Amino acid sequence: AEESLREKTDELEKFFSGALDLLCVADTDGYFRRLNAEWEKTLGYTREELIGSRFLDLVHPDDLKATLNTMQELDTQNVVTSFTNRYRRKDGHYRWIEWRSYPAGKMIYAVARDITERIELEGTLRAAKEAAEEANRVKSEFLANMSHEIRTPLNGIIGLAHLALKTGLTDKQRDYLNKIGASAKMLAGIINDVLD
Fold it and tell me: Which residues are bridge partners to 34 per DSSP?
């Protein structure tokens, strides 16, 4: 039985050590109790520096209240399947961590993942979307202004040429006004196509 227990313990240790995600055992008082090696890669601290330390000291100040609320959920034995907060690295930068946590008495068993790149990509995409929407708004405004600024005087030329043709004119004047009207209509067609 002891040999079987030792084999199972070794097996679990290998699983714990070899996981690509961040594995953590903590307590509801806010202290790390056990961590796998991925924490060292993610936060830059050694496990010896982290184990026994207060993980709340690493939480970004803006995320502390939400983290404390989540800790209360876990303390009342509620599973938390999706929670995100930021942890300070040893170099002072913050990493976004997404959690799934399972309470067992005063202990918390958690699986986490560094999602910093995803958050940054989402921010970049959001900024690009906002920039595209702003560019589209500016383009629409420009086209509306151009449409008004160009079409209004052009329609005036076409209308006045048409009215002038109804007055007493020489053949030469009539020819000029017909050419002005035809040219203005052609230009209006080109402008409509360009604006469209």
Answer: 25
